[in-house]
Amino acid sequence: MSEKNEEIDPELLALADPKHDTVLKPFLMITVILMGFWVINDWREELSYFFQSSVPVDLGDSMEMSSTKVDIPHNAFVSTTGIPTRRSNAERYRYFSLVGSKIFVEQKRDDYIEDPFEREVNGNKGDVDRVYFRGKGRLLHFSKLGGRYNGLRDYYRSRYRTGFCEQLTESDKEEMIARRRDAFKMYYKKNYDEASEETRKKKGLKATPTQAEIQALEEEEPVCIDAYLLQADVEPKGHLWYLISSLLFAFFMLFNVYLLLKWIKRFLGK
Predict the structure, then answer these.
(1) Fewest beta carbons within 10 Å, which of 10, 157, 163, 243?
(2) What is the Cα–Cα distance from 117 to 90, expressed in whole angstroms?
């Protein structure tokens, strides 16, 4: 029997017929389009950072930031200097804050061993404790980081009593401020009651602090800080792959839009 005389399954012919398209096809196309939108939207700040100038914004020395009221930008390429304090080491990175500022630095450890086996055998050596930081990188406000650095926040809150404002509601802040004021007033009252009349006059002790003294305490030791994270040595050009990946997603999105329009046209019989 020749090939021409062979019977062809009518069900296979039906599957090849464009008129028998199932709703699964447009559903998959729409899923690809929506996923592309979601991914590109999630990368907005990474894409924005890629187009930043390669010349960093100089924030100056961290010790001068509080006195000069430096405008600290978010998602910017910056450079700064300062004295590291409140250090913390993770496996791959080390962290510290800069004295006089609200900036925390994330810096790759010089001694990190990439190979897992070698790292297991040798372990990470103690990183060199630097007494001065001079560097540049990507600066991000902690409130924009989501839950990615919750472990770091928790460590600094438990170890150094550093509160991050984005984790607190306004009522939480007000309650903490009220407790701080009450404790300050109790401390004043205790010192006053335990001192003799001569000591009170000599040191100028009072039973209650003035409003100016309370305000000075709150400015010196705030209940929380609007902190920033400096990802050291992360430059805008390092985010090129976000742009390339976004363009690929955009291509697949447009291609699926084209296929979806074709499917709709066939479905309507045009």
Answers:
(1) 10
(2) 18
